[in-house]
Amino acid sequence: MTEDRDIPRDRTGDTDGGLREHEVRTALLDLLAEVGTVTATEAASRLGYSSGLCSFHLRQLARHGRIEEAPHRGGRARPWRLARHSPTADGSAEDAFGDLTRGLEDESWQRWLTQRDDAPPEWRHDAAFSAVAYLTPEEMNRVAEAVRQALAPYQDREQRPLARPEGAQPVALITRLFPLLPHAPKTTDRD
């Protein structure tokens, strides 16, 4: 069994960055949706990753309830399948995937915070920021599109490693635009 410490590390010593984690886990979910069941070795062969990396991310997906072990007849092979539980309470599997994605983003952020001092000096900073702006729904959509357009020149680098400049590393780019709702009034025993 592959332990977490056996995960392939990149040149900086970090385990695969947040974007790569999302890429690998999304690819694994897509593969499971296509073929039904898969082992880490089969996934590695189909997706071009190492079996250790696939094994790690399959276990992470299972930990988050997205997949489960498939029945098998013993042996060392450990097949996985999409979880057979019902979608979220409102019936939306898309919401469940969104929750998983946000959880993985938060997990990657926490790992960055705890391991930042171990990164090479040129990578020890981040550009995290937040803002509140008063927007209409149309303006919010325009801001989201502007962010997508700003990132567009870099998107092909994920699928085309030769397009990456020397020294490029995966960087998590997370944007969440949502309306700030008022706090719900607190109820008391008298209400």
Automatic annotation (TrEMBL):
<dbReference type="InterPro" id="IPR036390">
    <property type="entry name" value="WH_DNA-bd_sf"/>
</dbReference>
<dbReference type="Pfam" id="PF12840">
    <property type="entry name" value="HTH_20"/>
</dbReference>
<dbReference type="InterPro" id="IPR011991">
    <property type="entry name" value="ArsR-like_HTH"/>
</dbReference>
<protein>
    <submittedName>
        <fullName>Helix-turn-helix domain-containing protein</fullName>
    </submittedName>
</protein>
<feature type="region of interest" description="Disordered">
    <location>
        <begin position="1"/>
        <end position="20"/>
    </location>
</feature>
<dbReference type="InterPro" id="IPR036388">
    <property type="entry name" value="WH-like_DNA-bd_sf"/>
</dbReference>
